[in-house]
Design a protein that fits this description.
38% of the residues lie in helices and 21% in strands. The protein is α/β, with parallel strands linked by helices. Bound molecules: adenosine-5'-diphosphate and magnesium ion (MG).
Length: 704
């Protein structure tokens, strides 16, 4: 027995607050339980009525003679706590609290919600809600529709969870129209107890569930979500709409990493890292779900388009461009065979344009040829009905030939609205049908990306022999001093302790002896201003490169003082950093950084670095833990990755070392929790590992 079986697999349900009043929630839920022929006992509870829905009603759950597994509660908020206590006395094990008026309304409501969850926890009751629209278990042995959404949801293989009740109803209706079915549906409301992770775990091994779809507003515990969805998505696709990621989430941060991070970035990183198919709208979610459950998984990314109209065919090709899909090159054998069944004006290249007259026969025969072609992995069949051809017959034929092959076919029917509603009834087991070519291509992109994820090995979280104690002591010392940026020498020491190659350097007080400091270094050197408040040194003339001798160094100090004074930051300068010049003409600048996200924890960033990082924004983010494969993918996701590989005769830089530095940084922030923010920009990466150097870094410690 799983603790959530009391909610999803009850043998008896009490609807507390049931009423015969038309169009009331208490009535709709009772109706839906009966209409869906729940496979168990239903007890209406309301002290005002003797019978409701021709069924004996009880004044309280404690009066019901039989055991009650699940209580669906729709009484007004002030009465809920009392009802939950009665349920506890009765030995009820599952609660679905529909009623609103708790945490979502403010502190008073939150107090009431906490009291309810306290009773539930003390009596081992699991609870969905409050403030939700109910749950469905549409599997054949249960047939429980404990929601107030109109209509009977068809049974299927999709388990759906929503954090928004209203969206839940919209999705239930949309899915019914498409003939898609649910195994389970849960509107979690304020998720005071049961949340996304509980449901992911519950549906992980459920035999009726082939795909899990979620509308999320928050992740709860992002790290746990990552762990679970990484595991589950290896066997079942997870499709997520994540809202609440608007730009407002971005924080005013002082570091490069901080200013580039934000809620949206963090969500995207997390979902990508765990193989979840993220979609940007409810509509796209329904399309992707239809694509996954209505067709086999593709074996590759080679796409063939079959159409009776040129325009939409080209739209599909355009939409496929740059989305991980290839336009398949059909074999001569296939093209020759198609020429035999198509008119001379048809095109047998890809997209295959059968021209307007193409009817059910042509669709079936041409698709049969295309699906048999080894160069094709996924097919989109587009039909724009001319007057004389019956669209549903074409859909039937497309479905018939598609089911005869083990390859996905997504069809696009650009027809009058009424046809779509008829399809679930008149074209049983229809292939996924979309209204526009772009929708079908998007689905092909998602299923292909999921295919790659499933094929991808898990990767390893690698760690290195490092001096954690040294780094920890330096960060803790700063934390005890109230936090803030570590001094340049300590920053170099922390990075050195974790194997980051830093440049030879010396820190000199504002009026100190630069010449003496430079004597321990090799020219050319770089002079930089030091000052906790001076974040971007170059912007105020605080960086001077290529200094060849001591005389030039003194001159550089004078020039810099003048610039700092002109920029009005001379008073912020506490000293100078003299550094050896690193890199060579083949070096490339990358940025590595960490920002702490209040929800997600450490967010690790890597990307193309240097002074224009905020302009180029060519960076990638990941949440911890990070595997070697994550680091590999991260680097290859940069738009300018070819620069690291070497272009225009330039040599390839040590890309593998960049991947290793990502893993070392992940280990650093995992083992040294007091780091609030960390920026290395740039890390100069050269063709050889020996030449790579971190030349600019800042670490901000959290105050103790
Ligand atoms: N030691 C060095 N060797 C070579 N180039 C350097 C060195 N230090 C800085 N630079 C170059 O100067 C630029 C600005 O220096 P940086 O220390 O990053 O200042 P900022 O505070 O403006 O980020 C770097 O992006 C890099 O191109
Ligand atoms: Mg810099």
């Amino acid at each position: 027995m799983h603790s959530l079986d009391a909610i999803f697999k009850p043998r008896s349900i009490a609807v507390i607050g049931a009423t015969p009043r038309p169009r009331s929630i208490g009535r709709e839920i009772l109706n839906n339980l009966f209409a869906n022929e729940f496979n168990g006992k239903i007890f209406p509870v309301n002290p005002k009525y003797e019978y409701i829905h021709s069924t004996k009603a009880y004044p309280s759950v404690t009066n019901i003679p039989d055991p009650v597994d699940l209580a669906v509660i729709v009484v007004p908020a002030p009465l809920v706590l009392g009802v939950v206590e009665e349920c506890a006395k009765k030995g009820v094990k599952g609660l679905v609290i529909i009623t609103a008026g708790f945490r979502e309304i403010g502190p008073e409501g939150a107090k009431l919600e906490d009291a309810i969850i306290d009773v539930a926890k003390r009596h081992g009751m699991r609870m969905i809600g409050p403030n939700c629209m109910g749950v469905i278990d549409a599997t054949p042995d249960v047939r429980m529709n404990a929601t107030f959404s109109p209509g009977v949801p068809p049974t299927g293989t999709v388990a759906f969870m929503t954090q928004s009740g209203a969206l839940g109803v919209a999705i239930l209706l949309a899915v019914q129209k498409l003939g898609l079915g649910f195994s389970y549906f849960a509107s979690v409301g304020n998720k005071a107890d049961v949340g996304a992770m509980d449901l992911l775990e519950y549906w992980e091994n459920d035999a009726h569930t082939q795909l899990i779809a979620m509308y999320l507003e928050s992740f709860g515990d992002p790290r746990r979500f990552t762990e679970l969805s990484k595991r589950i998505s290896k066997t079942k696709p997870i499709v997520v709409v994540k809202s609440g990621t608007s730009a407002a989430g971005a924080r005013a941060a002082s570091s490069h990493t901080g200013s580039l991070a934000g809620l949206e970035v963090a969500s995207e990183a997390l979902l990508q890292q765990c193989g979840v198919n993220r979609v940007s709208s409810i509509e796209e979610m329904i399309h992707v779900v239809a694509g996954f459950v209505g067709a086999p998984m593709p074996r590759g990314n080679r796409l063939c388009i079959v159409t009776n109209a040129g325009g939409p065919g080209i739209m599909a090709v355009d939409a496929a461009d740059g989305h991980g899909l290839q336009i398949a090159a059909l074999s001569e054998k296939t093209r020759a065979a198609m020429r035999k069944v198509l008119p001379a004006e048809a095109s047998v290249d890809n997209p295959v344009d059968m021209v307007a007259g193409a009817g059910p026969d042509q669709y079936e025969r041409v698709l049969d040829l295309v699906l048999a072609d080894d160069s094709v992995d996924v097919t989109i069949a587009i039909f724009v009905p001319p007057l004389m051809i019956e669209p549903l017959e074409v859909m039937r034929r497309i479905t018939r030939v598609a089911r005869a092959h083990e390859k996905p076919v997504y069809s696009v029917l650009m027809a009058e609205e009424s046809y779509y509603e008829r399809i679930p009834r008149e074209v049983p087991d229809a292939v996924p049908i979309f209204r526009f070519p772009e929708d079908a291509v998007k689905v092909a992109e998602h299923t292909n990306r999921y295919r790659l994820w499933r094929a991808r090995p898990a990767g390893t979280v690698r760690t290195f022999p490092v001096d954690t104690a040294r780094a920890l002591s330096l960060v803790e010392r700063k934390a005890k001093a109230g936090g803030g940026y570590l001094a340049p020498e300590d920053t170099h020491a922390v990075l050195g302790a974790y194997g980051f190659p830093t440049v030879g350097h010396a820190v000199v007080p504002i009026d100190g002896d630069l010449r003496a400091a430079a004597r321990s270094l090799a020219f050319p050197v770089v002079l930089k201003v030091v000052g906790e408040k001076i974040v971007h040194k170059s912007d105020v003339g605080g960086v001077m490169l290529g200094i060849r001798n001591e005389k030039a160094l003194e001159l550089a100090r004078e020039t810099m003082r003048a610039s700092l004074s002109k920029a009005g930051v001379l008073t912020h300068a506490t000293g100078y950093l003299v550094q050896e010049m690193a890199g060579d003409s083949n070096g490339k600048e990358v940025i590595l950084g960490v920002a702490q996200d209040p929800k997600f924890g450490p967010l690790l960033m890597c990307g193309m670095g240097g002074r224009y990082v905020e302009i180029l924004r060519d960076v990638a983010f990941r949440v911890l833990p990070i595997t070697d494969l994550d680091a590999h993918d991260m680097v290859r996701s940069f738009r300018s990755f070819p620069l690291l590989e070497g272009v225009r005769g330039e040599p390839r830089v040590d890309v593998e070392f960049v991947e290793e530095l990502i893993l070392r940084l992940a280990q650093l922030v995992d083992e040294i929790p007091g780091i609030q923010e960390l920026d290395m920009n740039p890390v100069i990466v050269t063709p050889t590992r020996a030449g790579c150097r971190v030349v600019d870094a800042r670490i901000r410690a959290l105050g103790a």
